[in-house]
Amino acid sequence: MVKTGARIGCPQAEKVIVPNSVAELHNRFPENRISLNVIDTIDAAGSSILPFFLVPDAHQNLDDNACITNTLHSFMTNEATNEPLDHFIIHGNFRSNEPLTILILDGHTCHKNEEFLLKAEFNNVLFQFLPSH
Length: 133
Prior knowledge:
Elements: E1 2-8, E2 34-40, E3 52-56, E4 68-71, H1 82-91, E5 101-106, H2 114-122, E6 125-130
Parallel strand pairs: 3-4, 5-6
Antiparallel strand pairs: 1-2, 2-3
Protein name: Putative sda1 domain protein
Organism: Erysiphe neolycopersici
């Protein structure tokens, strides 16, 4: 899994035309931007599954099949860790009776919670951890 982050913001010196429904505008200062993270999974053959999005706060009217979860600041947390793993297992078609799958992750502490590790083991997913960033 590859996690890519982006910050959404609008420089103050720019003119921006938006629909009336837009409720907020963000300036060039980092503390006044929204963070968005995307988790993408690509196998050794180069094929991929649907990306998984981490977005801040709660969002209404999302499709039940949307590959998205909400966290306070769009950062991965222990509570949110299982959702991308579930997504990976479902869309990667991994089952407990199939050969082992190796998944490379960063060494973030949320990837080492017990429920996350047990779910991976049950589905024959083995983790290789890179040093934490």
